[in-house]
Specification:
binds 5-S-methyl-1-O-phosphono-5-thio-D-ribulose, globular, 369 residues, 7-stranded mixed beta sheet, 11 helices, 4-stranded mixed beta sheet, Rossmann fold, alpha/beta, Four Helix Bundle (Hemerythrin (Met), subunit A)
Length: 369
């Protein structure tokens, strides 16, 4: 039997040749193609084209990315023996900032991208301030990037534990897009309670929205949950209302790309529609997000920048032939904002935030339980 998709690393570092290793998610589920990224352009393209996607996985890729690029810069600037000196830091750091800005421009909505890059930048500046040489700075950057990945695994598991308290064995759970293992380094966020429930014999019945236009629900969520042996049913996005009206869903779990300070949350396009329907049928709607996705500097959802994607994703991608008239106007926002009043709770690794979110989120993010 072949290797299960869950046995692959979503994002990894190959230190033997200084590359990032990812599964090209645009080919799933038909082909499991593992690819290597080495240049800034390759990393940027992989994020923009959604070869690697999902807010936490994008953050980890960016951290590994800026690390391998920094190591390349150090190699270009200096010979090994010179790396022990401090004098080339300014040239090194100018390039570091340039590459950081470039990677950060790949996708605008998921805050984990800038969050991870800022964290790496902080390590760089602090190490320099502490008198470390380039060799030592590169080593610290590598350590930080690996820690960001390990942290993601711990955080997702903790989100799973917290989310599992909100449901009971046998429940029906609906999810939208892919906030699964393929969007993180393990467990996922929205799927973490499902995976932990599976470990404990909860026998959830999961409904996965296919998630037009890029089909992350069909290609990724249905695929990974099915591979894990979870009872999962794929539905088109326009079927979630019927499924909820039928009483088949006891909770909705979705992921998130950015949580504003007031609890408005940006997630894959269509999420706010699911939230409105859930409210209509009195189904609790839970947003699962690591605190790294909470952006207290963004007051409300109105200030979240929503990524616009190419028209072809709607008109022809996935089809044998074009399915819309040539020249038709297309509106293709990749995300929408769910208003905080539609959200029953936000499940983080540090605990569960409920309204009023301004208070509960800042309490959790400042280390509260
Ligand atoms: O465009 P994508 O596939 O990157 O969108 C992904 C989502 O919207 C996820 O729900 C979100 O990033 C959370 S992933 C744990």
């Amino acid at each position: 039997m072949g290797k299960s998709i869950l046995e692959y690393e979503t994002v990894d570092l190959d230190e033997s040749d200084g590359s990032i290793v990812i599964i090209d998610q645009t080919r799933l589920p038909a082909r499991t193609e593992v690819i290597k990224l080495r240049t800034a352009q390759e990393i940027w393209d992989a994020i923009y084209l959604l070869k690697v996607r999902g807010a936490p996985a994008i953050g980890v890729t960016a951290a590994f990315g800026i690390y391998i690029l920094a190591a390349q810069t150090a190699d270009e600037i200096l010979h090994f023996e010179d790396k022990a000196s401090n004098s080339f830091f300014d040239i090194f750091y100018d390039k570091f900032k340039e590459q950081k800005e470039f990677l950060n421009s790949a996708r605008p909505t998921a805050v984990n991208l800038s969050w991870a890059l800022e964290r790496m930048d902080r390590v760089c500046r602090q190490a320099h301030k502490a008198g470390k040489n380039l060799n030592e700075i590169i080593e610290l950057l590598g350590r930080e990037a690996k820690e960001i990945k390990q942290e993601d695994i711990r955080v997702c598991r903790a989100i799973g534990e917290n989310g599992l308290c909100l449901v009971k064995p046998g429940d029906g759970i609906l999810t939208h897009c892919n906030a699964g293992q393929l969007a993180t380094c393990k467990y996922g966020t929205a799927t973490a309670p499902i995976y932990l429930g599976q470990e404990r014999g909860y026998n959830f019945r999961v409904f996965a929205d296919e998630t037009r236009p890029l089909l992350q629900g069909a290609r990724l969520t249905a695929y990974e949950l099915h591979s894990a042996g979870v009872d999962v049913t794929l539905i088109c996005d326009n079927m979630s209302s019927m499924v909820m009206k039928n009483g088949w869903v006891q909770a909705v779990f979705v992921g998130c790309d950015r949580v504003a300070a007031n609890g408005d949350t940006a997630n894959k396009i269509g999420t706010s529609m699911v939230a409105a329907v859930a409210k209509r049928y009195h189904v609790p709607f839970y947003v699962c997000a690591p605190t790294s996705t909470v952006d207290l500097a963004t007051p409300t959802g109105a200030e979240i920048k929503i990524e616009q994607r190419p028209a072809e994703e709607v008109t022809e991608m996935w089809y044998k032939e074009r399915m819309a008239p040539e020249g038709i106007k297309v509106y293709n926002p990749a995300f929408d904002v769910t208003d905080n009043e539609l959200i029953t709770a936000i499940v983080t690794e540090k605990g569960i935030a409920r309204a009023p979110y301004k208070e509960s989120l800042s309490f959790l993010c400042s280390g509260g339980k």
